[in-house]
Amino acid sequence: MVIPGEQALAERGLRLTPQRMMILEAIEARDDHFSAEEIYAQVRQRYSHMNLSTVYRTLEILEQAGLVTQTDLGDGRVRYHWTEKSRHHHLICQGCGQVIDLEECLLAPLKETLRRDYGFSANIAHVTIFGRCAKCHEV
Description:
Number of strands: 5
Structural class: alpha+beta
Order of helices and strands: HHHHEEEEHEH
CATH superfamily of the largest domain: Winged helix-like DNA-binding domain superfamily/Winged helix DNA-binding domain
Strand order of the largest sheet: 4-3-5
Number of domains: 2
CATH architecture of the largest domain: Orthogonal Bundle
Shape: flat
Strand content: 15-25%
Radius of gyration: 17 Å
Number of helices: 6
Largest sheet: 3 strands, mixed
CATH class of the largest domain: Mainly Alpha
């Protein structure tokens, strides 16, 4: 069975090392947002010689290939998400920490306005907007 990430790396002429394949399997098995440290811990259970730097380099390659996006969910570390799972953005409540997924199509008009009015091609791949949810706004 070929994992989509493996195929995408091969199509870009990138080597499919055993470490990269284990990292890809760990990422593709997740449905949530994850940190490099979480992937490292998961892979290290199977392969004790894994280096955290290898995970970071692989995530950078996957991001350049458009297979993962990164975002800051306000917890002080970068989080990643496998793009094949879903394309969405986030609203983060600065009061209670609630994370609300926002559909990608809602930011499409902004992207078009930036292109049309400013000649700016925005990369709106995974946006996080901080503010207050309805419950915290009332307080």
